[in-house]
Amino acid sequence: MSKEKRQKEIINIITSSSISTQQELQEKLKEKGFETTQATISRDIKELSLIKAVSDSGTYKYDIPSSIKDRGKSPEEILKNIFQEAVVSVNSAMNIVVIKCNTGMAQAVCAKLDNAYFESIVGTIAGDDTVFAVLKSEAFAIEFVGMLNSLLV
């Protein structure tokens, strides 16, 4: 069977089942008639830009990246979606805003903030579960925290 068909089936599998390992994905593909190697599945995951996301049960599973899911949405909707999915809390200290995220999600949140181009942000940096945003003033930071917190509800 073709690579296109296999990759389409991978998308179908991960959107209908909670798949957390390449081995699980390989087994599901086999059930659907696709004999594949682990190396092929690894390449498919990379080519499809699949990510690991937290499932409802708190475990990690393969998922389609937000950038693909978000096609056709406004930048505000995209930012709100990623915040509701990934952000735990937002606070400030002086002109620094600290955004605590679910593990592994800080880079995505930081990228969305950078792409949104807030003029009051001087710069951002992200770790695994925390984003620091330096704002031009403490007043901007307080306003920014309020706006970000409004995205969480």
- Portion of residues in beta strands equals 15-25%
Radius of gyration in whole Å, from Cα? 19 Å
CATH architecture field of the largest domain: 2-Layer Sandwich
DSSP strand tally: 6
Number of helices: 7
Distance between the termini: 46 Å
Mean pLDDT: 88
Q: Can you tell me about this structure?
A:
It contains seven helices and six strands. With 153 residues, the chain is of the alpha+beta class. The chain folds into two domains: 3-64, Arc Repressor Mutant, subunit A (Orthogonal Bundle), CATH 1.10.10; 68-151, Gyrase A, domain 2 (2-Layer Sandwich), CATH 3.30.1360. The chain has a four-stranded antiparallel beta sheet. The longest helix has 14 residues, at 3-16.
What is the element layout, followed by pairings?
Elements: H1 3-16, H2 22-31, H3 38-47, E1 51-54, E2 60-63, H4 66-69, H5 75-86, E3 87-93, E4 96-101, H6 106-116, E5 121-126, E6 130-135, H7 138-151
Antiparallel strand pairs: 1-2, 3-4, 4-6, 5-6
Helix pairs in contact: 5-6
